[in-house]
Amino acid sequence: MTMSAPHTAARHNPKVTTALRRFAISISVLNVFGYTVLGFEQPWLWPFVALATGYTVEIALELLGARAEGRAPRFTGGGFKGLVEFLFPAHITALAVNMLSYVNDKMWVMVFGVIVAVGTKWVLRAPVKGRMRHFMNPSNFGIAVILVLFPWASIAPPYHFTEYLDGGFDWLVPAIIITLGTMLNAKLTERMWLILAWVGGFALQAIVRGLLFDTSIPAALAMMTGVAFVLFTNYMITDPGTTPSSKWGQIAFGGGVAALYGVLTAMSIAYGLFFATALACAIRGAFLWTADIVAKKRAEEALELAAVTRSVSRAEAPSGAQPDAAPAQAEAPAPCACPADACSCPAPANTEAAPCACPADACSCPAPANTEADPAKTPVAA
């Protein structure tokens, strides 16, 4: 299969690229501070292993996809800058999976999670505005798969984000994350409606669970003050590539994740944040596929109806048009009232010295009426 021209369209629009760049910088800085100041418990080598895995899988799958689709890889044509921008999603995904999951000393499980997270973008896809786009949140899905396949694994303990901070500085970390995350989501990703729906829905489900199942409402609401919740709210659930962009779509998605979390927690299912997000993404993917199938079916029905309408019109046109044509021709007035054997009359026909036999009240006759009879007569100019 031959490759297409070297020119490739931009993978993301500039606004999304800027958001990805800031996401990547934020999570990188957080990892540096996490291992040097905050108290991250994963081995310090693991982030580098995660990044190497994510980069390798992303480039390999892009090469395979480009070859299958007959186009140039999307990281070519932009130089080193283009390659870096292409790897932003893999960078974010790899660091997030390593940072938010805890797999004891089994590094290969973390590597497996990164491979699943990056690879799912090429498997779980749906048509969006005429293009195939991934609908599953990669980082969240990779962590969810780890939790399902390896029951002994868990998410990173929340305390490791502020383990070595005290004297009020443990509140500084979530405050910084909230400030930077809000600026990022308000100006670039434009997912503030999603955040508001998610936070409001989370508080609502905590109250409902307390009223229905007699759980502690303050304890359920207190979860919203943790660094893990703040990180999830600003950097996980707001992924611009796997969430709706419309106002009501964002509200439905954020509220849906909160409702699913409440149901899972009421069923005593742990790690409900990750499973609820994965379920919401799966429901959205099913909706996108259903909408596309219905739209195509309606388009086909419209084409078939148009074809039938044209066929019926063609079948009825000869029998319906011919009877009306004859009366129309019969009723049409003669273009000239000159007798059939009259000579060509000059215009106007009712002049005082008429050189031919046209009646006095006749119109100008088209020339020639009878040029052979008298070549001296003057034809009327057409």
Automatic annotation (TrEMBL):
The chain crosses the membrane at residues 20-38, 44-61, 82-101, 107-124, 136-156, 168-186, 193-211, 217-236, 248-264. The keyword Membrane applies. Keywords: Membrane, Transmembrane, Transmembrane helix. This is UnbU. It comes from Streptomyces viridosporus.
